[in-house]
Amino acid sequence: MSAHMPDAQSTEELKEKWVDKQEVLTGSDILLRSLVLEGVKCVFGYPGGAVLYIYDAMYGFKDFHHVLTRHEQGAIHAADGYARAAGEVGVCIATSGPGATNLVTGIATAYMDSTPLVIITGNVASTLIGTDAFQEADITGITMPITKHSYLVRSVDELPRIIHEAFHIANTGRKGPVLIDIPKDVSAAMTLFQPHTEPVALRGYNPRMAPNKLQVERLAEAISNAERPLILAGGGVVYSGGHEALLELVEKTGIPITTTLLGLGGFPSGHELWLGMPGMHGTFASNMSIQEADLLISIGARFDDRVTGKLNGFAPKAKIAHIDIDPAEIGKNVKTDIPIVGDVKTVLELLNKTVKRAESADEWRSQLQQWKAEKPFSYKDDYKEDEIGLKPQWVVELLNETTNGEAIVTTDVGQHQMWAAQYYKFNHPRSWITSGGLGTMGFGLPSAIGAQMAQPDRLVISVNGDGGVQMCSQELAICAINNIPVKVVILNNQVLGMVRQWQELIYDNRYSHIDLSGSPDFVKLAEAYGVKGLRASTKEEARRVWQEALDTPGPVVIDFVVEKGENVYPMVQQGKTLDQMLMGDE
Q1: Which superfamily is assigned to 392-569 in CATH?
Q2: Where does the record place the Thiamine pyrophosphate enzyme TPP-binding domain (predicted)?
Q3: Active-site choice (41, 44, 64, 72)
């Protein structure tokens, strides 16, 4: 990529220089230097009146890279993708009023999925706050329910401390977004720069990392006694870096494992004990294993409704153990018998010291392997190589086969998201970036840009529907300008696919306002932005254009014209239990 990213050595040198040197600086200069002190290498943003002092300070500033997106929503989704791919705090900047409110969807997306972000917004001058001044919005009030914490900076002297605290809060405990709102006069005011680099101690904020050892011992004993144990692993495994400890636990105990949507990649998909993804569109083996288990160990998963189905019929035979860093999640949705509060990696490393193989589970393992073999994900495909017609599942399989599951894959939300989750086989954590909790259309493309900035040497594929891709398609400009080599895959069925599926199955084929046939020619749209555009409507074309995309060093948009009426199966309808799956052949 052509974008300049500062190296770690230069950042360390700057830290040493700035900490020792006493200077009187503007709030804007203090902000930029404080970001560098926190290790920030890339910022996504969009300027406006209330942040002009900040952007003026950026003029000629080369100690982090700033990416000018084409919409504030693009900026925050890109920062989110960067954070998830890098395992670091993502940063974005926007102006006051509409600039700040355009971030709200992205803030909620990060909050629901526990992504560490620091969001910097400008505000009108302190003397104008509360007067309904031009482009004024109470963004701290608006976002209070969807941030871990919010700051309204009242004095330039507070800035170094607030920035240091914000990064600490965002990236500890249950991670999430923190907002810093800076009035325009604060960004212009001057003071002596006194960097904050010492450890943060906040009264009332003490995330518990180490678990209660007695509870861990209870879990180890329960595993020894279980006949049908099962692990349900979620995004917390990935966020904590606990994937190696999880693999060790599974191999020591022989417990089968299912991974949630956000947990994909946290456990290698090729492992014989991996059952797939559970829930509304999960595998038969995963869902049946939950319903039949006598011990269900939830690790960094929060029992989302798309995982549990009907709550009072979820895991009816199981004792529930729940490992989570957020005590508020334990017992919130599902009654918990063995609660363990702590960092997932820390808990698993402690558990691995004493846990033994689940010897009584041999028959159980055999049963699950049988279910896994008998009812894998499947679809009917009668199209010949040169016949017009593509199954979306086949396209995802093509992506998987040609990349050996080694790519970073981002998605929007909808049918394409589920097909990507079902048919792409992830080998590594931080390879799957999707909007899980909020289900945000428009997330896929900008999050892929952020992921590619974080991992410039990895192949990044953004899988999109033809609906969601249009919500942030303007960010193709960023790919062209910065030569960000994202491969943008569009599964184009000319319809709001998941809405159409629900209207077919639940609303008696009453298709209401889902027709996307008036969408643009995506090849021409890509070319208008200076990005290569390709299209395929047969398998032969699909293989050829996808290989061309892989061989192209820059960004590419590939429009795969897929079958309009294809549905995602299995499917557990709302109000049904996990064993009441529609398998697609009914």
Answers
A1: Thiamin diphosphate (ThDP)-binding fold, Pyr/PP domains (3.40.50.970)
A2: 412-560
A3: 72
Parallel, antiparallel or unpaired: strands 556-561 and 460-465: unpaired
- Structure token pair of residue 447: 């999050």
Query: For the chain, what are the domain ranges?
Result: 11-192, 213-374, 392-569
The reply to whether 15 belongs to the active site is no
Q: Which of 41, 184, 391, 539 is catalytic?
A: 184
pTM: 0.96
Question: Which CA distances in Å does 374 have to 283, 284, 405, 417?
Answer: 11, 9, 23, 24
pLDDT tens for 551-581 read 999 999 999 999 999 999 999 999 999 999 9
- Given 135, 215, 573, 580, the catalytic residue: 135
3-state SS, residue 293: coil
Active site residue 498: yes
Give the helix, strand, coil percentages of the chain, each rounded to 5.
40, 15, 40
CATH class assigned to 11-192: alpha beta
pLDDT tens figures, 62-92: 999 999 999 999 999 999 999 999 999 999 9
Domain 213-374 in CATH 3.80.30.20? no
Q: Is 563 in the active site?
A: no
Measured between alpha carbons, how far is 449 from 454 in angstroms, rounded to an integer? 9
Q: What would the two tokens of residue 255 be?
A: 């417990």
Pairwise CA distance, residues 292 & 481, whole Å = 53
406 as an active site residue: the answer is no
Active-site residue flag, 184: yes
Catalytic residue, from 5, 134, 359, 387: name it.
134
164/200 Cα distance (integer angstroms):
8
Q: Quote the DSSP letter at residue 23.
A: -
Question: Is the fold of 11-192 the same as that of 392-569?
Answer: yes
Beta bridge partners of 463: 411, 489
